[in-house]
């Protein structure tokens, strides 16, 4: 695996889930794989879970993690090609990436979408430069369009808690005060399409995600109808993906608090589990009552971020043997 970006990069999903179970049962069993290996974990944006779980996964594999916060620990980096560098950005990605690559064996990158230029974001302009110029395997730790470590952890969590062979999983949009990326819902849709689940997406009109991630997933605009009989409710806010109207890309089309997942929403489900990738805005995305209920999986879901990251790095290290 040279890049971890799409669900297809992990290959057979059932095999990946089986490997995740093995890693979770015996996290230190592959400790010699990472001896004398280094992962550089590069952050252009804030993080709690990704920052900690990626380092923990590396340590479990015997690998040394180095964390770099761009603009705080490093020079501010220019990411646009062909510009006159007369702003406050002292160094270009074009030099910084091969330098970073020369110090490590694997690179993890967090670089959120800017939500201004759809083409720039949806071409994964920054992540692609890391892939092209580093010469090292690259893991997306939420880049412009995807968050595969999160979606893999979500799938592991669903596998651990499902009560039927083919559970109904509903991803619902929920309100948020700030414009957020589409990376989490894009990857969740992609991974649910690859998994053996009955997958439904619900959101207000205008929030249609890019079909290259949602594929043939069912879309139901009536949230209550979508939630009926759900076994898992996956809440997330995202800004306008601009599929139907590119001029609205990254904007907030609704703050309708009727979409906040509360007890009335959960009442129509099949006693569903509640999921969210975190960080979550309480009483915007989900009511206190639901997130604090025994059906909430947000903490085990976050804990599984170590497992998903470890499976990915383990595969990359095995290919270096
Ligand atoms: C980010 C997002 O929605 O993409 C990160 C989620 C893992 N969330 C926020 O910025 C609040
Ligand atoms: N879920 C997730 O990626 O969290 P962080 O943004 O805190 O890393």
Give a brief rundown of this model.
With 321 residues, this protein is an alpha/beta fold. It has twelve helices and twelve strands.
List the helices and strands and how they pair.
Blueprint lengths: L2 E2 L8 H13 L12 E6 L5 H12 L3 E6 L7 E2 L12 E2 H10 L3 E5 L7 H5 L2 H10 L3 E3 L7 H14 L6 E6 L9 H12 L3 E5 L8 H4 L3 E2 L3 H5 L4 E5 L26 H5 L5 E3 L12 H4 L6 H21 L3
Parallel strand pairs: 1-7, 2-3, 2-6, 4-5, 6-7, 8-9, 8-11, 9-10, 11-12
The structure holds N-acetyl-L-norvaline and phosphoric acid mono(formamide)ester.
Describe this structure in words.
The protein has 321 residues and is α/β, with parallel strands linked by helices. The protein is 36% helix and 15% strand. It contains twelve helices and twelve strands. The strands form three sheets. Strands 1-7-6-2-3 form a five-stranded parallel β-sheet, with helices on both faces. A five-stranded parallel β-sheet has the order 10-9-8-11-12. A two-stranded parallel ribbon has the order 4-5. Helix 8 links the parallel strand 9 and strand 10. Helix 1 packs across helix 12 and helix 6 crosses helix 7. The chain is globular. The relative contact order is 0.16. The model has no long low-confidence stretch (mean pLDDT 98).
